[in-house]
C-alpha cells in the first residue's frame, strides 16, 4: 500500500538530511504553528468560551498526554497496551499520596510520579521478551487488574478517595478551569513536541523497526528487548505525569477515575486518530472527547424524554448510537483520521493532477 | 479467452498504477508478462482475479472479459469458481496447516469425490511433496512452498492459472524444475497460463506470447521468440548488449540511447 | 482437607463455565483471527433472549431454549455481516476495536429493551444438591460442566476432521489467500460467528438461571479471557483446560487470601505461565521466517 503521507507542497525539497527531518518545513507551516499557539493561549479570554468548554479542553489535554504515550508504545512500537489507565493511576496516586502524607507540592512530585509509573511499566513490559501481539496485550490487561487490586487493598486511604492540594506557582493557586488551563495546555504542548521529536530520532526509528519486523531489526543490531522496555517506560512515564496532573486538577484522588473502560477509551482514541502518528493522536482525542461529552449531555435528556421505556433505556440508546457510529467510522476508515487527513492533504496538493 | 481492454487501475482513488493495459490470453497458451519492479504486473493479475478490493484498489476504466462476460466487478470467489486461479507472489502457504491440508483447500470448490484423484495428480507433478504431506507448510523451504502453492492452484483444475513471480527467491535449478512443470501442466491439462516474471530469460523460454509492461502500460508484445531477439529487450532485460561480450562501463550509455519503444 | 476440597470443586465448576465462554473466543479466533471482546455481551444477549421467550411470552421451556439458541445463531451472523464483513483484510487492531464497540452497542440495546435492573428469576434446573464430603454440588454445576466438555469435544472433532472445519482454519491463516482459491470467506465467517453466537447463548442461559438475569452477566467475559489465552487461542481443548485452571486458581487464592484476590492472582499466574509457554498450552506457535 503506497504511503500517501509524504507529498510536500510543490517547490519544497530538501538538499540535506537535516533539513528533510525538520518538523516544520515551510514558511507557511511555521506561520500556522505560531498563530495556532497564540490562539491556544488566548482562548480562555475569548467570549463564549465558558468554564464548561475549558473543562472539556483540559480533560482532552490530559487525555492527549496519556494517548501520546500510548501511541508511542502501541502505534510506533507495536506493543498493544490495554492497561494504560492503571499506569495513569500509579502516577496519580504517587503524586497524591506524597502530597497528602508529606505535603509535597505538584512541582516536586510530578517527576517522581512519572518515574514511578515508568518503573511499574517497565516491570510489566518484561514479558515482552517472550510474548507478542495479543498475548502481550494480555499482560497489560493483567497489569490493569493487578494494579487496581493493589491500589484498593494495599493502601488504607485509597479506597474511599482523598483530597489533594491544587497546584501553586508563587501566590497563584490553580484551582479553577480558567487557571488550570494554563498548566494543562503548556504541558500538553511540550509533551507533544517531545513525542514528535523523539519519534523522528533514533529511538523512534528503532521502535518502528521493532514494530514492523522485530527479528529483522534484531538482525540489524537493534537490541529489541531494550527498545521495547524503553517504549514501555516512555509510555508509562507520560501516563504518570498525566495522572499527577489529573489529581491536582480534580483536587481529589479516587480509584473510579482509572478503570478498564478508560484504558479502552484511550486505545480507541489512538485507533480512531491513527496509530503511529502524533497528529493522529490529537485528532483522535478531540473526536472521542466530543463524542463522549455528547453522551453525557444528551443521556439524561433522552432518559427523561423516553420515560415510557424501562429505566436505563436512555443511556442504552446513546450507547447504541455511539457504538454504532464508531463502528461505522472504523469500517469506513480503518486507518484512522490521520490517514484521511493525509489523503486530503495529498489530494489538495496534487489537485487537479490526482496522479 | 481472457481479454483485457484498456484497463485502468487506481489505488485509494489517487494512485494510478495501470494506465490502459490491453492483453489477450488464448486457450491453452502460455503467456508471460515482463517488466521491472513497480511496472504494475501484480496489479494486472489482481485485477483479473478480483483481489484488488482489500488493497483499496479498483478497476476504474476498461473491461476485463472472460469468454465474453465481464469479470472486472465480480467477487474473487466467483472468478475463481469460473476457473481463474491466481498463485500470489511470495509463496503464501497457509502456514499452520500441513501440505496435504493446503492442497485439500485448493480443491475445496470442486466436488469431494475426486479429491484423492486430484491429490495424486499433484503428487505426480511434485514428487517431493508426497514425502512432505504431513509437514507443517510454514516450515518448508522456499522451493517446497512454491510447489505447495502451485499444487494448491492445480487442485482446482484451473482454466487459466495466473502465476505471480514463481521464480522469486529460488535457486536456478529449482526454477528450471518449476518451469518444466508449468510447461507440462499446460500441455497435459490444457490450461492457459499467464506468468508474471522478472526473470525474463526463463519466462521468454517457456511462453508462446509475451507482453512487456512499463509504468502501467504495455510497451511491447509479440511472440516470445521474436521478443527474445529484440535489441531493446536484450539490452534492458537480458543484460546482453553484444552477445557474449563483456560490457565495459565506459560503453554504458543507456542514458544516451532511448528505448526504441518510447 | 475438606476446605480445600470444596474450594477445588467450586473452582472446577466455575472453571467449566469460563471454559464454555472461552470456547466462544476460540471459535471466533480460530476462524477469523479476531479476539471478540463482545463475547461476554453476546452471552448476555442470549440470556435475555431466552428470558424474553420464557417469561415475557410465556412459552414452554424447551421451545424457549430452541428459539433462543436459534436467535443466537442469527445474531452472530448479523453481527458478522454488519461489521466484520467490511474489515476483511484490515489490520487486527481495527477488528478488535470494533468488537469492543459492539459490546457497548449490545449493552445499550439490552438496556433499551429490558432496562438496567435485574429481571425476574427463572429456574431451569431442579435444585437438587449432592454432598461429597463437605462439598455441595448442584445440578446446575453438573450441567454446566457436562455441557462445556461436550461442546469442546464436538468443536475439536469438527475442526480436525471436517472440510468446513478445515476451511475455517484456512480462513484464519489468510483471508486473501482463501479468496483467491474460490472459497467464500464471507460464508465461512458467517457460520463461525453464528456458532459462536449459539455457544454464547447456551452459556448465557445456564449462567442466567443461576446468577440471575442481569447486566453483570457480561463480566464473565473478563475472566474467560485469561482462560482462552492460557489454553492457547486456537485450541478448543485449551479453552476448557484453561477455564478449569483459572477457575481453580481463582477459587483457591480467594479462599485463602480473601478479598477477591483470586482475580488478580489468576492474571498473575497467567503472565508467569505465558513467559514459559508464550502461545498458551496448546496454541499455535507463530511461524516466522525472516
Count of helix runs of chain B: 10
Q: What's the β-strand tally of chain B?
A: 10
Separation of the first and last Cα atoms of chain B: 29 Å
Tell me the strand percentage band of chain C.
under 5%
Category from helices, strands and their pairing of chain B: alpha/beta
Q: For the largest sheet of chain C, list the strands in their spatial order.
A: 1-2
Instruction: State the fourth-level CATH superfamily of chain B.
Output: P-loop containing nucleotide triphosphate hydrolases
Describe this structure in words.
The complex is a heterotrimer of chains A (355), B (262) and C (290). Chain A has 355 residues and is mainly alpha-helical. Chain A has helices spanning 17-20, 27-42, 51-76, 84-102, 106-125, 133-154, 177-199, 202-212, 214-219, 224-250, 260-273, 278-305, 313-332, 336-350; strands at 162-163, 167-169, 172-174, 252-253. Chain A has a domain at 48-277. Chain A contains 14 helices and four strands. In chain A, helix 3 packs across helix 11 (260-273), helix 4 runs parallel beside helix 6 (133-154) and helix 12 crosses helix 14. Chain B is of the alpha/beta class. Chain B is built from ten helices and ten strands. In chain B, the strands form two sheets. Chain B has a six-stranded mixed beta sheet, with helices on both faces. A four-stranded antiparallel beta sheet of chain B has the order 2-1-4-5, with helices on one face. The mean pLDDT of chain B is 85. Chain C has a single domain (2-276), classed as Orthogonal Bundle (ABC transporter involved in vitamin B12 uptake, BtuC), CATH 1.10.3470. The longest helix of chain C is centred in the N-terminal third of the chain and has 31 residues, at 2-32. In chain C, helix 1 runs parallel beside helix 5, helix 1 crosses helix 6 (163-173) and helix 3 packs across helix 8. Chain C has a two-stranded antiparallel ribbon. Chain B binds chain C through residues 49-51, 53-55, 76-77, 79-81, 85-86, 88, 92, 94-97, 101, 104-106, 108-109, 112, 136, 138-139, 152-153, 156, and chain C through 88-89, 163, 166-167, 169-170, 173-186, 234, 284, 287, 289.
Amino acid at each position: 500500500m503506497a504511503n500517501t503521507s509524504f507529498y510536500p507542497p510543490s517547490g519544497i525539497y530538501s538538499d540535506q538530511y537535516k533539513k528533510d527531518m525538520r518538523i516544520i518545513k515551510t514558511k507557511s507551516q511555521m506561520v500556522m504553528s505560531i498563530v495556532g499557539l497564540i490562539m491556544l493561549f488566548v482562548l480562555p479570554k475569548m467570549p463564549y468560551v465558558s468554564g464548561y468548554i475549558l473543562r472539556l479542553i483540559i480533560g482532552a489535554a490530559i487525555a492527549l498526554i496519556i494517548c501520546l504515550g500510548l501511541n508511542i508504545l502501541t502505534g510506533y512500537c507495536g506493543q498493544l497496551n490495554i492497561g494504560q489507565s492503571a499506569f495513569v493511576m500509579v502516577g496519580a496516586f504517587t503524586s497524591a499520596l506524597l502530597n497528602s502524607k508529606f505535603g509535597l507540592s505538584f512541582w516536586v512530585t510530578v517527576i517522581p510520579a512519572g518515574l514511578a509509573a515508568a518503573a511499574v511499566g517497565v516491570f510489566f513490559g518484561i514479558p515482552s521478551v517472550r510474548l507478542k501481539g495479543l498475548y502481550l496485550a494480555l499482560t497489560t490487561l493483567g497489569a490493569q487488574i493487578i494494579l487496581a487490586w493493589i491500589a484498593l487493598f494495599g493502601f488504607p486511604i485509597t479506597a474511599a478517595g482523598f483530597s489533594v492540594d491544587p497546584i501553586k506557582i508563587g501566590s497563584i493557586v490553580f484551582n479553577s478551569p480558567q487557571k488550570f488551563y494554563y498548566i494543562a495546555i503548556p504541558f500538553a504542548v511540550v509533551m507533544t513536541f517531545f513525542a514528535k521529536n523523539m519519534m523522528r530520532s533514533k529511538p523512534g526509528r528503532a521502535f518502528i523497526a521493532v514494530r514492523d519486523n522485530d527479528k529483522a531489526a534484531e538482525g540489524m543490531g537493534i537490541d529489541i528487548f531494550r527498545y521495547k522496555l524503553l517504549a514501555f517506560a516512555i509510555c508509562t512515564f507520560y501516563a504518570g505525569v498525566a495522572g499527577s496532573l489529573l489529581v491536582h486538577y480534580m483536587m481529589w484522588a479516587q480509584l473510579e477515575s482509572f478503570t478498564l473502560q478508560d484504558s479502552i477509551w484511550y486505545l480507541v482514541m489512538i485507533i480512531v486518530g491513527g496509530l503511529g502518528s502524533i497528529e493522529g493522536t490529537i485528532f483522535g482525542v478531540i473526536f472521542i472527547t466530543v463524542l463522549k461529552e455528547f453522551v453525557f449531555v444528551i443521556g439524561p435528556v433522552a432518559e427523561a424524554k423516553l420515560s415510557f421505556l424501562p429505566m436505563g433505556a436512555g443511556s442504552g440508546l446513546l450507547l447504541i448510537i455511539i457504538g454504532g457510529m464508531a463502528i461505522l467510522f472504523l469500517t469506513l476508515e480503518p486507518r484512522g483520521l490521520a490517514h484521511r487527513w493525509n489523503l486530503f492533504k495529498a489530494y489538495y496538493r496534487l489537485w487537479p493532477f490526482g496522479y | 479467452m481472457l481479454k483485457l481492454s484498456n484497463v485502468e487501475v487506481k489505488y485509494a482513488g489517487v494512485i494510478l498504477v495501470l494506465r490502459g493495459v490491453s492483453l489477450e490470453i488464448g486457450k491453452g497458451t502460455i503467456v508471460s508478462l515482463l517488466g521491472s519492479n513497480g511496472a504494475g504486473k501484480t496489479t494486472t493479475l489482481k485485477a483479473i482475479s478480483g483481489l484488488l478490493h482489500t488493497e483499496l484498489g479498483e478497476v476504474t476504466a476498461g473491461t476485463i472479459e472472460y469468454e465474453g462476460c465481464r469479470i472486472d466487478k465480480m467477487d474473487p470467489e466467483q472468478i475463481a469458481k469460473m476457473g481463474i486461479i491466481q498463485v500470489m507472489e511470495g509463496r503464501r502457504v497457509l502456514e499452520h496447516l500441513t501440505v496435504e491440508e493446503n492442497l485439500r483447500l485448493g480443491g475445496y470448490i470442486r466436488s469431494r469425490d475426486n479429491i484423492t484423484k486430484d491429490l495424486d495428480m499433484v503428487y505426480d507433478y511434485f514428487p517431493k511433496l508426497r514425502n512432505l504431506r504431513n509437514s507443517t507448510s510454514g516450515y518448508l523451504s522456499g522451493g517446497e512452498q512454491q510447489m505447495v502453492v502451485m499444487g494448491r492452484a492445480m487442485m482446482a483444475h484451473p482454466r487459466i492459472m495466473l502465476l505471480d513471480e514463481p521464480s522469486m527467491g529460488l535457486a536456478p535449478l529449482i526454477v528450471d524444475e518449476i518451469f518444466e512443470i508449468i510447461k507440462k501442466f499446460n500441455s497435459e491439462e490444457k490450461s492457459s497460463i499467464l506468468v508474471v516474471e522478472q526473470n525474463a530469460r526463463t519466462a521468454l523460454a517457456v511462453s508462446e506470447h509475451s507482453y512487456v509492461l512499463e509504468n502501467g502500460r504495455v510497451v511491447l508484445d509479440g511472440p516470445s521468440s521474436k521478443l527474445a531477439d529484440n535489441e531493446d529487450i536484450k539490452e534492458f532485460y537480458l543484460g546482453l548488449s553484444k552477445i557474449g561480450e563483456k560490457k565495459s562501463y565506459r560503453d554504458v550509455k543507456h542514458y544516451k540511447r532511448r528505448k526504441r519503444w518510447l | 482437607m475438606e476446605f480445600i476440597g470444596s474450594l477445588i470443586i467450586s473452582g472446577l465448576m466455575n472453571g467449566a463455565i469460563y471454559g464454555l465462554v472461552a470456547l466462544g473466543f476460540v471459535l471466533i479466533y480460530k476462524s477469523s483471527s479476531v479476539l471478540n471482546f463482545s463475547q461476554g455481551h453476546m452471552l448476555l444477549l442470549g440470556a435475555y433472549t431466552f428470558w424474553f421467550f420464557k417469561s415475557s411470552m410465556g412459552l414452554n421451556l424447551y421451545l424457549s431454549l430452541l428459539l433462543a439458541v436459534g436467535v443466537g445463531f442469527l445474531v452472530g451472523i448479523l453481527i458478522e455481516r454488519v461489521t466484520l464483513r467490511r474489515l476483511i483484510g484490515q489490520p487486527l487492531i481495527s477488528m478488535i476495536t470494533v468488537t469492543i464497540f459492539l459490546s457497548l452497542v449490545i449493552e445499550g440495546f439490552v438496556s433499551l429493551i429490558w432496562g438496567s435492573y435485574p429481571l425476574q428469576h427463572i429456574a431451569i434446573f431442579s435444585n437438587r444438591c449432592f454432598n461429597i464430603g463437605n462439598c455441595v454440588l448442584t445440578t446446575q454445576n453438573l450441567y454446566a460442566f457436562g455441557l462445556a466438555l461436550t461442546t469442546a469435544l464436538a468443536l475439536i472433532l469438527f475442526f480436525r476432521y471436517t472440510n468446513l472445519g478445515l476451511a475455517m482454519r484456512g480462513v484464519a491463516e489468510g483471508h486473501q489467500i482463501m479468496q483467491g482459491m474460490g472459497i467464500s470467506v464471507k460464508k465461512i465467517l458467517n457460520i463461525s460467528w453464528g456458532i459462536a453466537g449459539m455457544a454464547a447463548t447456551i452459556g448465557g442461559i445456564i449462567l442466567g438461571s443461576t446468577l440471575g438475569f442481569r447486566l453483570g452477566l457480561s463480566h464473565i467475559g473478563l475472566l474467560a479471557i485469561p482462560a482462552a489465552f492460557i489454553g492457547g487461542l486456537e485450541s478448543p481443548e485449551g479453552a476448557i483446560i484453561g477455564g478449569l485452571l483459572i477457575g481453580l486458581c481463582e477459587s483457591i487464592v480467594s479462599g485463602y487470601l480473601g478479598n477477591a484476590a483470586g482475580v488478580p492472582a489468576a492474571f498473575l499466574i497467567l503472565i508467569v505461565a505465558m513467559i514459559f509457554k508464550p502461545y498458551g498450552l496448546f496454541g499455535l506457535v507463530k511461524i516466522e521466517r525472516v
